[in-house]
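Open question from group meeting: does this chain pack into something compact, or does most of it stay loose? Before anyone orders reagents, we agreed to write out a predicted structure and look at it together. Recording both the input and the output here so the notebook holds the full record.
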Amino acid sequence: MSTPFYVSPQQAMADRAEYARKGIARGRSLVVLQYADGIVFVGENPSRALHKFSEIYDRIGFAAAGKYNEYENLRIGGVRYADLRGYTYDRDDVTARGLANVYAQTLGTIFSSSAEKPYEVELVVAEVGESPEGDQIYRLPHDGSIVDEHGSVAVGGNAEQISGYLDQRHRDGMTLAEALKLAVQALSRDTNGSEREIPAERLEVAVLDRTRPQKRKFKRIVGGQLSRLLDGGAGGGGTASEATSGNEDGDEE
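Structure tokens returned:
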């Protein structure tokens, strides 16, 4: 009987991490940015049915890059966790921090298990507060670690290059139209430094809008509303509520 090859734990973890990173890098990038009235999610996504962004609970949104079937399982698990905790205790007990901890435990367990491959996903969990100071954004890589982000974050594809671009140009107090334009500019940059045009119909955009009177702050921005924001809205300003007035079709069901 042949003797199995020995692989050190450090090498095994490094190989699993490299496998997951390559899988995530094959996906399209997405960005999450704070703006004056909330948090905006922007990504290139030609599909109208397979969403990268979703509502988890009243003030919490979810974004993911990587393999769709894997992050969709995580999203469904997050919704079930949030619904059960809100029903059992109180709706205010459902927080982005608590959800990020649940995802971190799940991803960490899968990553360290030799019985299955690591998930090829990178997640962002965001919660909009009553003020910009209360906003929370957490990035969760494939290994289950948690990174507390501020201002802007990019995941998937060439996230490192996009993050550098956003760090130099993002500022506090941006309008939604300004933040959206910045996000599209960042996503339009190729690895060689050139720029390409991303039409509105290939963009998936959603917001957590703190100014919405409803408990549910998540809103999808589509169609004419998205085009108006990309064109600058009212003098380069505009809010999600103004952009979607008279049309509730963008709400997440």
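Observations to bring back to the group:
The first strand starts at residue 30 and ends at 35.
The longest helix spans residues 68-88.
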